[in-house]
Amino acid sequence: MNAVARHLHHDAAPTKPKIGFEGVDVAYPTPEGGRIPVVSEASFAVGKGEFVSIVGPSGCGKSTVLRVLSGLLAHEKGTVRINGRSLEENRERIGFMFQRDTLLPWASVADNIRIGAELANIAHERRDARVAELIGFLRLSGFEKHRPHQLSGGMRQRVALGRLLAFEPHIYLLDEPFGALDAQTKIAMGRELLRVWSEYKRSVIFVTHDIEEAVTLSDRVLVMSPRPGHIVRDIAVDLPRPRDPKQLRKDARFADLVDAIWSELDAGH
Known about the structure:
By secondary structure, the protein is of the alpha/beta class.
């Protein structure tokens, strides 16, 4: 068995998970009163400070998994735990970043970021300092008073990331946050996200359709089946960190991992 095959069959889930998703079923109601199964018997775990991506065909339930974890959507069956507690008992702050930046169009860069601090009930005396710190950290200095329509797509996503960081979550859920960006900007934002993750070391679940992006960013890549989705493979990404997205694409091991994930998707479990 070759190295890639061993990774495909290896259960890389952590022994003491930060996030536990066990045998979860989710269905959406239809206008006729029926139900459409979207996720079925989905199980995985994510460790503290681990970066995990989820890939799979369109409509397989990737975004649904994030919505369940965030508490935005109820599941019908199975167990969802954060630090061993149910979602109802969870004390960890969970941040969600969507594909669209959802910035307030009338608010400045600084005010859009400040919303995260307000939602987290961060003390008033800390908010301005925290916003200023994040503006510098995300290389937005000089744009504090700009409105979203005055920014490029990549800068808007950095503002959205700043708002997420201002919320100071313990867990980041990111639903194709760079999907609408051009290839060059997407690579730049991937590098930015890795820099943020290296700094804060929070647990991350990142949904993407971009296989190369998943391998570049992640410690593990979960592959979902077509709807109703479940996890068919859990692939460890054994590439050294720190990672430069441009240089990584020249690595033979990177190519092997990308090919292995594509093979799983093509198999159409």
